[in-house]
Every structure is written in structure tokens, then in C-alpha cells.
Write a structure and sequence with these properties.
Elements (H helix, E strand, L loop, with lengths): L3 H10 L16 E5 L3 E3 L4 E11 L1 E6 L5 E3 L7 E8 L8 E9 L2 E2 L6 E6 L6 E5 L10 E7 L5 E6 L6 E5 L1 E2 L5 E7 L8 E8 L6 E2 L6 E3 L9 E3 L5 E3 L3 E8 L5 E6 L5 E5 L8 E8 L7 E8 L13 E9 L4 E5 L3 E3 L4 E7 L5 E6 L7 E4 L1 E3 L2 E8 L8 E9 L2 E6 L5 E6 L11 H45 L1
Parallel strand pairs: 2-9, 9-17, 20-26, 26-35, 28-36
Antiparallel strand pairs: 1-3, 3-6, 4-5, 4-7, 7-8, 7-9, 10-11, 11-15, 12-13, 12-16, 14-15, 16-18, 19-21, 21-24, 22-23, 22-25, 25-26, 27-29, 29-33, 30-31, 30-34, 32-33, 34-35, 34-36
């Protein structure tokens, strides 16, 4: 054991604390931050220096600045030293070390602890490329970007003991910045939720606020929900749109994803019932981004596994293209069942697709590639032969391959009337038809009159015979 003189020297009376270490005799301490090393601006944090039960005094210092903390002298043995920061600020961020004094001297320094403050600058955005929906075992690229010219981005994953990645930014025009992180392989065994931060090289421990959380969805094999909308597949620009995801499985949460989109909308089931669950997603079609193909997924609240995807639902937004095509029908809007009919949709604007929609139909509209004829872009929709089911009101729209879910204004409506077999007689007979009906009526009336005369004759004949029999009987 060291002498009392050695201890006094180690306390700083003659020698610096950091030089009085008996190498190999004491384990170096561990420095931890509670609740964690990444602290929002203005929040408290506690640093714990953990040693052995023989510790008498703990010392904490920050690299780069003459800023030391010492716990009060405690000759009562303890294994932890506590250092508190009540309001985290920019000057508190940095690299920290600690050590402690025991009867045998001062220990080595702990491994450094990076203490980070967040909340400066503006938060970046985080997206998944090409999509946040990832097949089990697949990889995905996460992109963190900002309009500010950050020098570095930090990607963090919730759980997993603060797992994080750092990436220097790629040079971008107009002082923007972005960095890509490769993540995978992903599995449905646990949740994959990420955030990202930005910082500058001059102050690597001062970070921006976190981005919005991004959760990767790994579809499973449980029962797929159904996705539908009461408004139909075509909605007008600016019209509110509600998509309903439902299932006969009692899921607690649903997620809605647009194919090839970077967003994943989630909502909790407000009042789940036994064997039935549903959730509504309200979309604002003022934004052109809401046209597209959608699927939804279900999940239990305490599980990380999502269901299989619903069948796809296409949402088409009308009115984003300025043209209004025309719709006509050959041979005409009034046809008989079994006839051949063609609906013709035309536009003078260069469009590569036309869509034909029937009001009230639950099925998706028909789509055809356009053809350029006589300075018109057009598509022919044949109906051969027509039945009564083809009758109804039709409109047509145009679209372009660069944005297939964004349509033109609708054409004027066209009503197709289909008469059945019982209605094939003309409703407006001509003069020859009237003469034929008159002749037939006379023939019928003459026939009836003749029949009446025959019957009267037979009755008269029978009456005469009866009279003769009566007369003969009276003579005898």
C-alpha cells in the first residue's frame, strides 16, 4: 500500500493528478451518460464515472477546455461518481474522460465519451430508396438530405444500444447536402426505425434536430387486408379522398404505402373489435403526388411483423392536365342489343394514353395507347356486341406516360342507350305500318262478326228443331 505521503502527493500537493498512476494495479473506469450521450438543447444529463468499490474521489474533465469537475472528497468507499449538467448547451458538447482515486493512486482515464447536443440549425429529411417497403433479407439505401450545407450526416437506429453510422456529405449545388447509407439485410424479426442529423466539421458534437422517424416495412405472410375508396378510382383535383384499409384480423395498426413513393403513412385503429379492424387515411389531392398505386398493411401493436400487402388500388387525379378531350360514339348513342359500337376519344394535345370511365362502375377505367390521325390524338374503344350492361354514362380522359396517374379534365359526358330484344319495334311507326295495322284490325273484326253469325245460326237451327219435336209430340 502506498504511503500517506504518496497519497497526499497524488491529491495534488506536489504532483499532477494525471501523472500519479500505478500502472496495472487499478482498472480504468467507465464513463456513461444518462439518459444517453445525445441530448436535446436545454435538457438535463447525468454523467456517471464507474470504478471499483475502493474509489475515494472521482474526476471528470472535458477535452480542449480547462473545465474540470471533482466530486466532493469522500473517504467512504463508493464505485460511482455523479456529475450533472442541468441544461445542455453548445459549450457542454464535446469529449469527456474521467478517472478516480483509490488507496493505491489515480487510475487511468476512461475511454472518451462523446456528449452531443441537438437542436441547432434545421432538421434534415430522411427517405428510403427506392421505397421504405423492403422484402425480407433485402437491402435498402437511406438518404439524408438538407438545404443547409452540412459536412456530415449521422444516421441512428432506435434500439440496438444506440447503433449509429456517420457519413461525410457529397458535394451538391446551391449549398445543399446529402449522404446515402446502405442498410441491410433487413428481416421482420424486429423494427427498423431510423432518424438522421446534420453537423459541421468545426463542431462535430453540435447536431441539428433529428429528422422525422423513418420506419422500414418488411411484409410478412399473415392475412392481407383490403383497400378501397368510396369515391371511386378517379377523383377531381382538390377533392378530399379517403382510403379505407380493413381486415377480418384484429390488427392494432395499419400502414399505407404508395408504390414507388418514399413515404409510409401509419395510423392506429381507434376502436378495434374482435375479428374486425379498419383505419381511414385522408389524402389531399391538391398535391399531385397523391395520384398513384397504393397498398396497405396491418400489424399488431406489440409486434414488429407486418401483414402481407393488400391488393393494389390505383388512384387517378383528374384536372392536372389542361386539355379536355372529346368523346363520340359510332354509329350513334341509341343502339340495339347485339350491335357493334365504338367510342372515340380525341384530343388536339399530344397525349399517349386515353382512359374511358363509366359512371358508377366499380372497375378501373379502360386505358388505350393513343394514335395520331388527321392532326388528332385519339383512341377507339370497341364494344362488340353490346348488351344492356353497356348502357350508361361515359367520360374519357387523357394522360401522359411521364405521370400516368395524373389525368386531363374530363370530356363532356356521353349517354349510351341500349335497347333489348323486346324493344326492337319502332316507337314511331310510319304511314305503311299504320295501314298494315288498320287492315289487320278490320280482318280481325270481320272474323269475329262471322263467328257471331255462325253461332247465332246454330242457335236458331237448334231452336227450330226443338219446336218441331214439341209439335209432333202434341199430335200423338
Amino acid at each position: 500500500m502506498m504511503s500517506i505521503l504518496s497519497v497526499l502527493l497524488c491529491l495534488g500537493l506536489s504532483l499532477d493528478q494525471r501523472t500519479c498512476v500505478q500502472a496495472g494495479t487499478l482498472p480504468k473506469p467507465t464513463l456513461l451518460a444518462e439518459p444517453g450521450p445525445v441530448i436535446p438543447y436545454g435538457s438535463p444529463v447525468t454523467l456517471w464515472c464507474e470504478g471499483t468499490l475502493e474509489a475515494r474521489m472521482f474526476h471528470l474533465y472535458k477535452e480542449g477546455k480547462q473545465m474540470d469537475w471533482n466530486t466532493p472528497s469522500q473517504w467512504k468507499p463508493t464505485n460511482k461518481g455523479k456529475f450533472s449538467i442541468t441544461h445542455m448547451a453548445e459549450h457542454d458538447a464535446g469529449r469527456y474522460h474521467c478517472n478516480y482515486l483509490s488507496p493505491t493512486g489515480w487510475t487511468e482515464h476512461s475511454d472518451p465519451l462523446e456528449l452531443v447536443v441537438t437542436g441547432y440549425y434545421q432538421e434534415p429529411s430522411l427517405s428510403a430508396l427506392p421505397s421504405p417497403v423492403v422484402t425480407s433479407g433485402g437491402n435498402v439505401t437511406l438518404e439524408c438530405s438538407s438545404w443547409q450545407g452540412f459536412h456530415r450526416f449521422i444516421l441512428t437506429k432506435e434500439g440496438d444500444h444506440g447503433l449509429s453510422w456517420m457519413q461525410d456529405t457529397q458535394p451538391q449545388p446551391r449549398e445543399t447536402s446529402r449522404a446515402k447509407f446502405s442498410v441491410g439485410p433487413v428481416t421482420p424479426s424486429h423494427r427498423w426505425t431510423f432518424r438522421c442529423y446534420g453537423c459541421y466539421r468545426e463542431s462535430l458534437q453540435v447536431w441539428s434536430p433529428p429528422s422525422d422517424a423513418l420506419e422500414l416495412l418488411v411484409p410478412g405472410e399473415s392475412g392481407k387486408p383490403s383497400l378501397l375508396t368510396q369515391q371511386g378510382p378517379i377523383v377531381a383535383s382538390g377533392q378530399s379522398l379517403t382510403l379505407q384499409c380493413s381486415s377480418d384480423v384484429g390488427y392494432d395498426r395499419f400502414a399505407l404505402h404508395k408504390m414507388e413513393g418514399r413515404d409510409l403513412l401509419q395510423t392506429l385503429v381507434q376502436q378495434p373489435q374482435a375479428g374486425l379492424s379498419q383505419a381511414n387515411f385522408l389524402l389531399d389531392t391538391e398535391s399531385s403526388s397523391h395520384g398513384g398505386r397504393y397498398r396497405c398493411y396491418g400489424r399488431y401493436k406489440l409486434s414488429s411483423k407486418w401483414s402481407a400487402p393488400s391488393d393494389p388500388l390505383d388512384i387517378l387525379v383528374a384536372g392536372h392536365l389542361p386539355d379536355r378531350p372529346s368523346l363520340s360514339v359510332q354509329p350513334g348513342p341509341r343502339v340495339a342489343s347485339g350491335d357493334n359500337v365504338t367510342l372515340l376519344c380525341q384530343s388536339q394535345s399530344p397525349r399517349d394514353t386515353f382512359l374511358l370511365s363509366k359512371e358508377g362502375a366499380a372497375v378501373a377505367p379502360l386505358g388505350l395507347r393513343s394514335k395520331h390521325r388527321a392532326q388528332q390524338f385519339q383512341a377507339e374503344f370497341p364494344m362488340s356486341p353490346v348488351t344492356s350492361a353497356h348502357g350508361g354514362t361515359y367520360r374519357c380522359y387523357s394522360s401522359h406516360s411521364t405521370s400516368p396517374y395524373l389525368l386531363s379534365l374530363p370530356s363532356d359526358h356521353l349517354e349510351l342507350l341500349v335497347s333489348g330484344a323486346a324493344d326492337t319495334l319502332s316507337l314511331s311507326p310510319n304511314r305503311s305500318d299504320l295501314k298494315m295495322d288498320y287492315t289487320m284490325g278490320n280482318s280481325i273484326r270481320m272474323g269475329v262478326a262471322g263467328l257471331v253469325l255462325v253461332v247465332l245460326g246454330m242457335l236458331l237451327f237448334e231452336a227450330q228443331n226443338s219446336l218441331k219435336r214439341t209439335h209432333n209430340a202434341a199430335k200423338t
